[in-house]
């Protein structure tokens, strides 16, 4: 078996050497280099993405500066108009028609959507175009312009009614139908009617010399020139790779009110809405969003910036971004080129590494194979490698030399072994004969000692008990004859005495049965456990009367047992008496019988439980041993041993559970009568 195991293990070790050498040769190329490439590509990809985010952040900065420039320019132009010679000249004429004519000319020159002059009381003096209602007078920029020499500019949100009060055309231009957009915040609105306005005001003088405010604005809703100018400024020609395109968008809340993003060919994505995630970050938290985002129908590297009105409330977003796909394609192309280059280099260099490794592991495999043949029993096996000056060649030469020496030592050991085996066989045969004789003698001695001890005990018990029994039986007969006719008055008592004298005789017989149980069969019959327990109680009643012991019975057994009634009574009385002796100061004696199965065999259990002194674990282990007793002077140590023997003869078992200070419980299990 050992030789077979060795021959099986040898090839495994040979493959292990090959694999290790191949791993050493290929590890740098196939493991370390890919790991380094993976780390480098991961870092390059992260830096590439960071560069894209940095670029879109720069693009957003340009768009922000352009919007700020528009705000500043509008304020400067309105301030310049309020301070111009033409405006002062018109004011001196104190004619409203001249003022309205100047406002109309100036509005068109500056590129405003509306321009009006309002006095300090909120009354519009002149306007262009002619106002259809009264505009709001408490705008923060108007209040600021009236109290300062500097112009006030900002972004404000006009309701559709406020736009209609200025011009119905502006109100109509501001109105956009909302386009259902996936991932947007759910809404019940179908249109967006508010307008986002570049709002500017400057302090001026009303005709007649009173303070006034010159107010103008540009509506950004559907202001395609404004948004296209931002896009052309941010994404000039050749600023993005081929295939990519830049976009710019102005949002009122989360609705695109001015954009060059295409919903489909020929139509801009006006009325579409931004995703809930972007809206929450920008409008909800006031953060600038710099990340990849799905815009209408494609992924863009995107930047969103919140826009704040003159009240300090976030009212919209400024967006710039460029198509992400060309950059992803470029990254994928780069990765494919790197992978292809790695495969080509690996295919060119691995065969060279394998050839170098083969020059090492082939001689080692030859040495390993030789060792395997030797382990399998072929001591004549040799490597037969040609002599070489390297380390492997010297190892092979020394191995062949050692194998020659081992073969010679093996021949000598085999001869010595044969001689030693012959001597051992001779000595072993002599020892076996001596052991057989010793074993036979030992068995005879043990049997003799056992028979002598049992015979001595049995003879003594028979002599000491049978003589008093004979005297008692004889005197009982004399009493009957003396009493004569009155014997019927004590018939029951005489019967009980006869039964107990007979029982004493049976005990002597059972003592002999303990020594030679196979010689006694006895008469057995079916009994109800409760009836046998009931017959035992009168025999121990005198012991119960001596102490304050409460008796509790519970007969739930419905099955019968097959056993000699006297033997079963003997077992139960022995257990009951032991329980009474364990409660010298009184207690509770519980007798139960119930059906119970054990190991798939139906049967019954008779339980004798006391609340006495109990037993420790050492006593419990030895309680069924012959001649072991805890009663010192009064006990013989045979009661439980004989009881266990009687029960086992009926294929039953007695078990005990006990705890010091809390009492003991003996359980007699017997199989059900067939």
Automatic annotation (TrEMBL):
Coiled coil segments of this chain: 399-437
Main location: membrane
GO cellular-component term (any): plasma membrane
EC number, as in UniProt: 2.7.13.3
Stored CDD domains: HAMP (cd06225), HisKA (cd00082)
Subcellular localization, as worded in the UniProt entry: Cell membrane
Name this polypeptide is given: histidine kinase
Organism per entry: Bradyrhizobium archetypum
Lineage: Bacteria, Pseudomonadati, Pseudomonadota, Alphaproteobacteria, Hyphomicrobiales
């Amino acid at each position: 078996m050992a030789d077979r195991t060795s021959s099986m293990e040898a090839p495994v070790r040979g493959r292990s050497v090959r694999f290790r050498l191949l791993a050493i040769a290929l590890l740098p190329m196939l493991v370390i280099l890919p790991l380094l490439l993976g780390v480098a590509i991961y870092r390059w990809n992260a830096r590439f993405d960071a560069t894209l985010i940095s670029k879109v952040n720069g693009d957003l900065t340009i768009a922000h500066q352009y919007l700020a420039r528009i705000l500043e320019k509008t304020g400067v132009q309105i301030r310049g108009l309020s301070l111009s010679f033409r405006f002062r000249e018109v004011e001196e004429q104190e004619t409203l028609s001249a003022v309205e004519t100047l406002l109309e000319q100036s509005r068109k020159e500056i590129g405003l959507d509306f321009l009006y002059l309002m006095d300090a009381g909120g009354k519009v003096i002149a306007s262009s175009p002619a106002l259809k209602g009264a505009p709001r007078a408490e705008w923060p920029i108007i209040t600021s312009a009236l109290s300062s020499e500097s112009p006030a500019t900002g972004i404000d949100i006009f309701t559709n009614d406020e736009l209609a009060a200025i011009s119905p055309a502006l109100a109509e231009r501001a109105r956009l139908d909302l386009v259902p957009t996936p991932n947007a915040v759910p809404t019940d609105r179908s249109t967006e009617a508010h307008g986002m306005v570049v709002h500017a005001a400057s302090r001026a003088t009303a005709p007649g010399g009173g303070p006034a405010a010159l107010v103008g604005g540009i509506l950004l809703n559907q202001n395609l020139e404004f948004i296209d100018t931002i896009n052309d400024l941010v994404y000039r020609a050749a600023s993005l790779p081929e295939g990519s395109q830049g976009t710019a968008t102005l949002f009122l809340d989360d609705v695109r009110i001015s954009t060059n993003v295409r919903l489909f060919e020929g139509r801009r994505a006006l009325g579409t809405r931004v995703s809930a995630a972007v809206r929450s970050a920008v409008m909800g938290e006031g953060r600038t969003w710099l990340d990849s985002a799905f815009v209408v129908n494609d992924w863009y590297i995107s930047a969103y910036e919140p826009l704040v009105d003159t009240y300090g409330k976030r009212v919209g977003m400024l967006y710039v971004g460029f198509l992400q796909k060309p950059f992803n394609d470029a990254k994928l192309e780069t990765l494919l080129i790197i992978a292809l280059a790695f495969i080509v280099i690996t295919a060119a260099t691995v065969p060279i590494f394998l050839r170098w490794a083969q020059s090492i592991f082939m001689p080692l495999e030859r040495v390993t194979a030789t060792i395997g043949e030797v382990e399998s029993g072929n001591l004549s096996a040799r490597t037969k490698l040609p002599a070489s000056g390297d380390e492997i060649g010297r190892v092979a030469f020394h191995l062949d030399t050692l194998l020659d020496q081992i073969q010679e030592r093996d021949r000598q050991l085999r001869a010595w072994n044969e001689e030693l085996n012959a001597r051992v066989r001779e000595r072993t045969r002599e020892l076996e004969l001596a052991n057989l004789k010793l074993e036979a003698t030992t068995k005879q001695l043990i049997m003799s000692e056992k028979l002598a001890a049992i015979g001595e005990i049995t003879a003594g018990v028979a002599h000491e008990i049978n003589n008093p029994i004979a005297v008692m039986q004889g005197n009982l007969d004399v009493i009957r004859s003396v009493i004569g006719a009155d014997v019927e008055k004590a018939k029951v008592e005489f019967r009980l005495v006869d039964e107990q004298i007979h029982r004493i005789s049976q005990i002597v017989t059972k003592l002999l049965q303990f020594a030679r149980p196979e010689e006694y069969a006895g008469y057995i019959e079916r009994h109800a456990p409760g009836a046998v327990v009931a017959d035992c109680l009168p025999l121990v009643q005198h012991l119960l009367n001596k102490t304050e012991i409460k008796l509790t019975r519970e007969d739930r057994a419905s099955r019968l047992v097959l056993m000699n009634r006297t033997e079963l009574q003997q077992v139960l009385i022995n257990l009951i008496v032991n329980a009474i002796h364990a409660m010298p100061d009184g207690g509770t004696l519980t007798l139960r019988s119930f059906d119970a199965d054990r190991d798939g065999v139906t049967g019954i259990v008779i339980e004798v439980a006391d609340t006495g002194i109990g037993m420790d674990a050492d006593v419990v282990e030895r309680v069924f041993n012959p001649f072991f007793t805890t009663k010192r002077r009064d006990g013989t140590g045979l009661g439980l041993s004989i009881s266990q023997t009687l029960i086992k003869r009926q294929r039953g078992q007695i078990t005990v559970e006990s705890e010091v200070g809390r009492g003991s419980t003996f359980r007699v299990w017997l199989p059900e009568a067939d």
